[in-house]
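pinned: reference chain
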Amino acid sequence: MTAPESIALDRVRSTADAASAPAPASGRKLVLAARTVLIMLLVAAVAILGLGLAIQVLGDPPEVDGWLRAIFGRVFTIVAVGISAVLGIPALVGLWAMAGARAEGATPALSEPVRGGLSALAIVATIATAVVLVATGSAFGILNLGLFGIVALATLGLGGATSFSPHRGRAILASIALALVVLGTAWVLANAFLAH
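pinned: its structure tokens
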């Protein structure tokens, strides 16, 4: 073996050793933070689903001329199920992708540039949402805060899932979910805040 080949082989071995080294304590904390964010998003989805189903099951029966309330009850249930799916499915995908991320010897499945790019996408989407919400100024500040919270939970949680998932297929699925969340966020911001 020649000297350049030996040097190249040593570099490959050191890169492989670094990749297979256990995650440092700060990495384990980030895994825990991403998992916590995804659990919070899942809890929000379950709570909204519960509200929608409670309205449907426990709602007062409408009077003869109470058609508006009857329609609203049905519409609210449908909207609640839809919102629960929009929040819950990405959260479940992210949690599934992160299964085993804190195990000894767990290494991220995606390459460093891909993980960095997806993390940057999540951070940029969160910051862009904050900038649009502050710049457009709405009369309903609490709704803006809620929208920002949902976007931050979804994008940063999925960004963490793509960064720390030890399963390649699950990490790819989480990155697709992240891209869909970012595209959905951009659509909502463009149509609800920037179109005026």
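why pinned: The helical segments are 3-20, 25-58, 67-97, 112-136, 141-164, 168-194. The CA atoms of residues 82 and 134 lie 27 Å apart.
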